[in-house]
């Protein structure tokens, strides 16, 4: 049983259901290859059938953790912090990112954009999902758009999403891991014909790192 006091602190973003935190190499997208400390916050109701971290979905299975301890741990590793999940925007990211910025850390987020944008971010990676579309004006704020390609229709979805982002936003197509052998040739062909897009791979899975 979580007490009312804890629920109140989670509501305010002062505690977060923490699934895991780990120091690794950013495997995906624009910052791939960069050492980064990952904070994986539990809770997501978007329901992607191919999600590679379904254990994150149920927030109740992840202990409410005070953000000061998450921030203290984060300072020990690198100056780049990636907040992911689950869907981090399920929660108020204001206090966590305020604390990280106070320590002069770079704040990056991996998000579907399915909930309103909170927090102060140096880098926003928006990975929209068809079953729960991004809300608000996050398209305009995204530095990177990363669309997961599971089937051919995802190219159409990718173009619809790309029409909404800013001119400077970097566009990525990333194969869904379980069908990578089938979709990688489609992505390669698409990017060669439509070079505004770039290929993103989950390089950490090839490197056998978290
Ligand atoms: C696990 S999600 C967590 C952050 C947020 N909920 C989101 O979807 O952006 C982190 C990144 O992994 C991507 N992803 C999840 N499962 C994947 C899979 N099976 N293959 C390729 N990318 C995947 C997501 O699209 C997202 O860009
Ligand atoms: N190395 C590594 N890079 C990543 N980039 C995005 C990830 C995520 O799950 O959000 C991820 C992850 O889980 N591991
Ligand atoms: S939005 Fe992200 S965490 Fe949620 S189910 Fe989809 S890929 Fe998984
Ligand atoms: Mg991952």
Poorly predicted parts:
none
Task: Tell me the domain tally.
Answer: 1
The percentage helix is: 25-40%
Q: Strand order of the main beta sheet, please?
A: 3-1-2-4-5-6-7-8-9
Calculate the terminal CA-CA distance, rounded to whole Å: 31 Å
Order of helices and strands: HEEEHEHEEHEHEHEH
Bound heterogens, unique: S-adenosylmethionine, the ligand Nc1nc2[nH]cc(C(=O)O)c2c(=O)[nH]1, iron/sulfur cluster, magnesium ion
Largest sheet: 9 strands, mixed
Strand segment count: 9
CATH class: Alpha Beta
The CATH topology is: TIM Barrel
Cofactor: S-adenosyl-L-methionine; [4Fe-4S] cluster; Mg(2+)
Pfam families: Radical_SAM
Protein name: 7-carboxy-7-deazaguanine synthase
Subunit structure: Homodimer.
Written description of the protein model:
This protein has 210 residues and is α/β, with parallel strands linked by helices. The protein has a single domain (4-207), classed as TIM Barrel (Alpha-Beta Barrel), CATH 3.20.20. It has 7 helices and 9 strands, in the order H-E-E-E-H-E-H-E-E-H-E-H-E-H-E-H. The chain has helices spanning 4-11, 67-74, 94-102, 138-141, 153-162, 180-193, 203-207, and strands at residues 15-25, 35-41, 64-66, 80-85, 106-111, 123-126, 144-149, 170-175, 197-199. Strands 3-1-2-4-5-6-7-8-9 form a 9-stranded mixed beta sheet. Helix 5 (153-162) links the parallel strand 7 (144-149) and strand 8 (170-175). The longest helix is centred in the C-terminal third of the chain and has 14 residues, at 180-193. The protein is globular and about 55 Å long. It binds S-adenosylmethionine, ligand 2KA, iron/sulfur cluster and magnesium ion. Magnesium ion binds at residues 52-53.
């Amino acid at each position: 049983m979580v007490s009312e006091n804890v629920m109140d602190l989670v509501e305010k973003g002062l505690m977060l259901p923490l699934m895991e935190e780990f120091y690794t190499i950013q495997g995906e997208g624009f910052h791939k290859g960069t050492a980064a400390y990952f904070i994986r916050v539990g809770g997501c109701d978007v329901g992607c059938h191919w999600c590679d971290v379904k254990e994150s979905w149920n927030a109740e299975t992840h202990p409410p953790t005070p953000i000061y301890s998450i921030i203290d741990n984060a300072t020990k590793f690198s100056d780049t912090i990636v907040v992911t999940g689950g869907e981090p925007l399920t929660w108020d990211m204001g206090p966590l990112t305020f604390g990280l910025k106070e320590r002069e850390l770079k704040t990056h987020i991996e998000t579907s954009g399915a909930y309103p944008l909170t927090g102060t971010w140096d880098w926003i990676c928006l990975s929209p999902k068809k079953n729960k579309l991004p809300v608000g004006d996050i398209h305009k704020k995204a530095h990177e758009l990363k669309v997961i390609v599971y089937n051919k229709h995802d190219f159409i979805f990718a173009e619809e999403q790309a029409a909404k982002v800013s001119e400077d936003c970097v566009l990525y197509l990333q194969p869904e891991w379980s069908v990578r052998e089938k979709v990688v040739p489609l992505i390669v062909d698409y990017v060669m014909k439509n070079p505004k897009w770039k290929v993103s791979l989950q390089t950490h899975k090839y490197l056998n790192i978290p």
